[in-house]
Specification:
Order of helices and strands: EEEEEEEEEEEEEEEEEEE
Length: about 290
């Protein structure tokens, strides 16, 4: 579209798929340096119809919605859109929005180009929207809008009546606080009553057999044990030996043990019974 950037003749022409023509080479004079190696693309001009854009009234400094200009290719050749431009008037108050136009608009097709109005001064504002393309004739449409200044603040009005009380808020119990430090120790209490006598314990006897192993287990009962029956059970691992029961004649008594192996440990359980009373002494001895 448009005139050649350089006068030339003898150039080669190639028809492109989109109906444009590619001009290659040629001469611009008769001298040896007048041979051209450049190329240029040409398209047949067409005509367009563009609808104007009116934003109406809008508050000063506030951005409004996108408003579109409808473009229709009214010619018989494709429209090759190179770019869009805002020109003249208050073009700084307008900006490009969404673009719904393709790069090529074929005869009879329509598309839309959007603008946004953000006025910088009060009053009427205007500019022109231009499509830069292979257009023969008018290629622009007017864009108008009116900016209204924000109203000045008036005097404050009277205080309105008090509103009704709101509902009572929910009662929420907060988390428990950390435990306080321990207080000082109190004075010692009174001495308690004396407890019952404890059971006696087993102790070693000096009597041993020829191998040196202990043959008796002796025990002392710290209460009146006369008349009680004593029985001993000796265990080592899964082995269990029992000593025949005998009646005690005093608080200090002993039970004869079966043959034990010197140096080994045995668990001895002595059971004392008299009527419904039962006492147990448990000890570990080394033979």
């Amino acid at each position: 579209a448009g005139p050649m950037t350089a006068a030339r003749w003898g150039e080669a022409f190639t028809l492109m798929e989109d109906t444009r023509v590619l001009a290659t080479g040629g001469l611009q004079g008769l001298g040896p340096d007048d041979v051209l190696a450049s190329t240029e693309v040409f398209a047949r001009n067409t005509t367009v119809d563009m609808t104007p854009i009116s934003f109406g009234s809008q508050a000063l400094g506030a951005g409004g919605p996108t408003v579109y200009s409808g473009i229709r290719n009214t010619g018989d050749a494709p429209l090759f859109i190179d770019r869009w431009r805002l020109e003249g008037g208050h073009f700084d108050d307008f900006d490009f929005g969404a673009n719904r136009c393709p790069g090529v608009l074929y005869p009879g097709d329509r598309c839309a180009r959007g603008l946004v109005f953000t006025p910088t001064a009060a009053g009427p504002r205007e500019t022109d929207l231009l499509v830069i393309a292979n257009v023969d004739g008018e290629n622009s449409t007017p864009v108008t809008g009116h900016a209204t200044a924000a109203p000045a603040d008036g005097a404050p009005g009277p205080t309105g009546p008090a509103g009704p009380s709101g509902p009572q808020g929910a009662s929420v119990t907060g988390p428990a606080g950390a435990a306080g430090a321990a207080g000082p120790s109190g004075p010692p209490g009174e001495q308690g009553a004396q407890g019952p006598r404890g059971l006696g314990g087993a102790y070693r006897c000096k009597e041993r057999d020829r191998t040196g192993a202990k043959r008796r287990v002796c025990f002392l009962v710290i209460f009146q044990a006369r008349g009680m029956t004593a029985r001993a059970t000796i265990t080592r691992g899964r082995s269990i030996r029992r000593v025949r029961a005998r009646k005690l004649t005093s608080n200090t008594a002993d039970l004869a043990l079966p043959r034990l192996v010197k140096g080994r440990r045995y668990k001895v359980t002595i059971t004392l019974r008299k009527g419904r009373e039962t006492y147990v002494i448990r000890r570990t001895i080394r033979a």
